[in-house]
Amino acid sequence: MQDWNSSTWVSVDEPKDSEAAGAVVLIVGAGSGVGRAVARAFAQDGARHMVLADLAPDTASRTAGEICRDFGLRDGEDVLARRVDVVDRVSVQAMVEATVEQFGRIDKLVNTAGVVASPMTLTDTTAKEFDQVYRVNVTGALNLLQEVGPVMERVQASTRLSGPAASSSRSMVFLASAFCFAASRNHGAYVSSKHALLGLLRTAALEMAHRHVRVNAVCPTWVDTPLMAEGLRTNPGLKAYIKRVVPLGRMATAEEVAQVVLFLSSDGASFVTGAAWSVDGGLSAGLPPLPGLDLPGGSGSGSGSLEALGHPERLGRAGKSGPTRESEFPQISTL
Fold first, then answer.
1. CA-CA distance, 28 to 84, in Å (whole number)?
2. Distance between CA 291 and CA 149 in Å, rounded?
3. Integer Cα distance of 39 and 26 in angstroms
4. 3-class SS of residue 82
5. Measuring CA to CA, how many Å separate 176 from each of 35, 74, 156, 159, 217?
6. Where is the Ketoreductase domain positioned along the sequence (predicted)?
7. What CATH code is assigned to 17-333?
8. pLDDT in tens, 98-119
9. Which residues are known catalytic residues?
């Protein structure tokens, strides 16, 4: 794969000279999926000081090793791998302290950790199941905001920057979901947690703006990740369904989502905060075709239905029984 440069072609595996080279980047959920793609995107953009964290430490270590090998960085020095449980405030605090001890500050935070529960109606969802989803998707995000935010604010205050330089240096990007904007039957806990997450992030954006810390959300629909591959195996018709209802006729790649995260983290988005960017191939722009209609200009056969717009249970956990213990709610890089 090639990137076009005004004077020459360069391989995408050759790091660029950019603002990322001097930034300290903390990525939560970096072990797989979108989080792994984000880590590689930052390395490609020149990042040389990175902490890659995940609930599964072996996956974080694997991503760190790959990046060090592919981009000529030093494992354990330029790139650190950490275990973190975003639900556990002490675990988050330890991760932040380790980052500051190694690199002195945090400039960019990306959080891709979240959970998806099995489908059930609101009346069938227990308070415990509801709370378990919220603990990861909402309280986990709050823990990161409360631990990383003050670190960013202190550094920003100490630099006494003004103008564009002040607003561009520190940023947080959280992976949210297309279901921040719409609901789906049988997924009340997940959908409402994503609505709550968006409200939390917008509040944080307002409260941290005076210190020039930007907070944004990226809201994808189906993404081609290992988790999604499991969903395709258990739902043979899902790929055709996605092709029918998504105007661009496919799911996103993890790399496509990562590029949006990278931009929102960069100086190019220095005046963007409190935003929620859809990465959904046009899905949220309109409704699927009505049953039986074949209209020109669409990517599908026209056999969709208005009721088929949701179904996040097909994101990768369909066909599985719902988690019953906290440990059965893995933190994953997903929607």
1. 8
2. 48
3. 9
4. strand
5. 12, 31, 26, 31, 6
6. 23-211
7. 3.40.50.720
8. 999 999 999 999 999 999 888 8
9. 190, 194
